[in-house]
Every structure is written in structure tokens, then in C-alpha cells.
Amino acid sequence: MKIHQMAPTPNCLRVSLFLAEAGLEVPRQEVNIREGENLSPEFRRLSANGLVPVLELDDGTTLCESLAICRYFDAIGPTGLFGHTPLEQGLVEMWTRLVEHQGLIPAFQAFRNLTGVYADRETCVEAWGQESKSRLYAFLPKLESRLAQATYLAGDRFSVADITAWTLLAFMARAGFDLDQDYPNIARWRARVASRPAFQ
Fold first, then answer.
1. Who contacts 3 (Cβ-Cβ below 8 Å, separation ≥6)?
2. Which domains, ranges and CATH numbers included, belong to the chain?
């Protein structure tokens, strides 16, 4: 098997961190999406959404969407990163989706529409970029509040929800979206996560 990726992208980073936490090594093949390699007919046959990452199995079966890839590896060798008890699993799912829908997606939309990085293949709308950026910053106090109540997003144990939140904040830094104020609980959580071997 192998993973087709562009390593610095948020969704590829999420899979890489998940695999590192699980102690798994999977061969990688880089795909230059900036140059449009993912637009080729060959790549389109691999990826249902035309994006990275894509897990290609030995029999030719492929999986795209980063969380689906993480779930596949968790199913073949449970990692605990999706939770242990029914309540934990529900909280992990809830916080993962909240970070995705209220954080990552607005961050992606803000970046793409404000920078025009993919203007050669999509319509960029500056007003939507500004609105998305506002929605991203509106989510941060929710994250701060949750981390005042819990060690990790889903409770006392580290999970894929934390990997997703780490990915969001890493992308914000690379995209030039600095935190708009001091968030001490987010800062403490980031230091805790950064000390994990998988994040070194």
C-alpha cells in the first residue's frame, strides 16, 4: 500500500500525525497539487474527490478523505484515537466535526479565496474569503472555552479530535492567520500536544 500526498497540506498532515501516533509506517508518494498533478486523468482514477491524501491498497482499492483513511487504519488495528467508550467515541466524533466544519473549512475557504492560490481552477470570491476568515476567528473562543474544561478536546485522553485541532492551528500559522488574541488554554494544550513523540 501507499499514500499519495502533498505532505504540508492539512489533510495529509492529519493522516501523518495519526499514523505516527499509531506507530505505523506507510510508503508515501508526493503529488504536487500546486502544479495541478491531482487534475490528471490518472490521479482522478485514484481519488474520488480529486484531492490528497489517497490511500492506495495493494489490490488497487483506494480511499480518499483523511478521516476515512484514519478510520481504516483504526479498524485494522484499533488505536483508541477514536475513543474507547461509547461516550468517548461520541465526544471524539462531535469535536472532530466541530473543528472541521467551524475551523478547518472556513480556514481553507478564507485562504483559497483571499490568496487566489488556485485561481487557475476555481472562482475566487474575496467577500467569501473575508466572511470565512470571520467565521474562523469566531470559532477560536469556543475552542478556548472547551480547553478550559478538559485536558484534551474529547476529555482526558488524546484523540483524533486533537490531531484535527492541531492541524487547524498549524494551517492557520502557515496561511498567515495569526490567533487574534491570547488564548491561554489553547496555548497550554498546544504545549502538551507538542511534547508527544509523534509531534516532535
1. 12, 15, 26, 27, 28, 29, 53, 54, 55, 56, 69
2. 2-76 (3.40.30.10), 86-199 (1.20.1050.10)
